Amino acid sequence: MNIAIAGTGYVGLVTAACLADKGHSVTCVDVNAEKIRLLNDGAIPIYEPGLEPLIERNRARLRFATDDKEAYREAEVIMIAVGTPPLPDGSVRLNDVWEVLRRIALTAERDCLVAIKSTVPVGTGDEAARFLAEHARHRVRFDVVSNPEFLSQGTAVRDTLQAPRIVLGVDSDRAERAMKELYAPFALPYVVTDRKSAEMIKYAANVFLALKISYINEIANVCELTGADIEAVAEGIGMDPRIGRRFLRAGVGYGGSCLPKDANALYALAASYGYSLKTVWAAIDVNEKQKWKLIDKARSYIGDFRNQTVAVLGAAFKPGTDDVRESPALANIEWLIAEGANVRVWDPAALGHVARRFGDAVVCCQTIEDAIRNADVCLIFTEWPAVLQFDLGRYKALMNTPLVVDGRNCYDVKQAAAAGLIYESIGRPL
Ligand code: UGA
């Protein structure tokens, strides 16, 4: 099929590459000329494992352009995958989605499907359908489909090619048939429903994960008070298939561009109908507090951070990505700088973002050893493989005081003690 995709972020680019890999012809459109130039030069503007070879392999079926008119005119399917960033009140900014819809109304010259992949509030698809029907410049019929995306950064290609389900929110058999034709080569199960339910599935899924993480973080906090071990507790409850083992890793809270944003957006959406989503509010509140756990723990050893050398391992919100949006590490770095600490940051992918954001206020280090050398405390925010595999003896050998406060439970408590570390982690007895 002939497909146009608006937006070359994680969702748009990965979807484009995967659809091209399945034989479709895809034009990616972005208003950002620099991104399009990079893509046409063979570079990838985001860090996403496996994406580059997939794009390279499918160059013949992929086009990258700023000219949306050309792309939308003859497209059978137009997918909207632009960002929906948060507004200060927790709701989402839909300007880019509406701009794309306006452009589609003006330029499409044949009947086409408009599939909304961006995460949008419940009811947006219905509004979009009304808008396109009213404003179409040419005599064309639009079918609007809600087709939310469930890929995670860092594993986005695999998540797309092997998704547990494809959600289709449709209001006609014609739209359902066409979407199934588009996804047929993926051979994945479908959930077919109405548009509003499909939009709600996306929020309900992401916010359930946020609830799960905040719940395990609170249980970890109670483990610390009682002497129970969160690792054993997570394993013990996770083996019950009704609960499941995944997303039960206690830590410094969830970050990224999705879970925090979607929890706030769902809360704001319910509030706009006069409903207070108490469970979601609790998850957001717990996450905000959890983000400061490492500093709270370190403070009991070193008191004041002024003139202390603090090594920060990990800036990305999780391993496998260079994304630092809503990363607990960044808020902590900002606080440490304000307190007068000497901050040394290591991250294998996100150091560029750190340097741009904090400039000379931090020292960016290319190796873990460089970051921890002569440090008074080391704070671990991201469980990168290099951190997990790091020789524990090196902390003792290189640090001024071997105080390691681990926000991702990277090491075995006994081994850390045996290596001579003063080791604090989340929800585990010393
Ligand atoms: C999330 C969802 O997992 C995807 O299904 C969804 O498509 C995506 O949002 C989106 O809406 O676009 P993502 O934000 O890439 O994906 O990352 P996750 O793997 O969900 O991790 C989010 C945060 O939770 C990270 O900071 C991670 O460290 C934290 N986390 C995750 C925990 O603290 N504990 C866990 O057990 C799991």
TrEMBL record:
Top-level taxon of the source organism: Bacteria
Enzyme class: oxidoreductase
Keywords noted in UniProt: NAD, Oxidoreductase
SMART domains in alphabetical order: UDPG_MGDP_dh_C
Catalytic activity: UDP-alpha-D-glucose + 2 NAD(+) + H2O = UDP-alpha-D-glucuronate + 2 NADH + 3 H(+)
Pfam families assigned: UDPG_MGDP_dh, UDPG_MGDP_dh_C, UDPG_MGDP_dh_N
Domain UDP-glucose/GDP-mannose dehydrogenase C-terminal: 311-413
Keyword NAD: yes
Protein name per the record: UDP-glucose 6-dehydrogenase
Organism lineage string: Bacteria, Bacillati, Bacillota, Bacilli, Bacillales
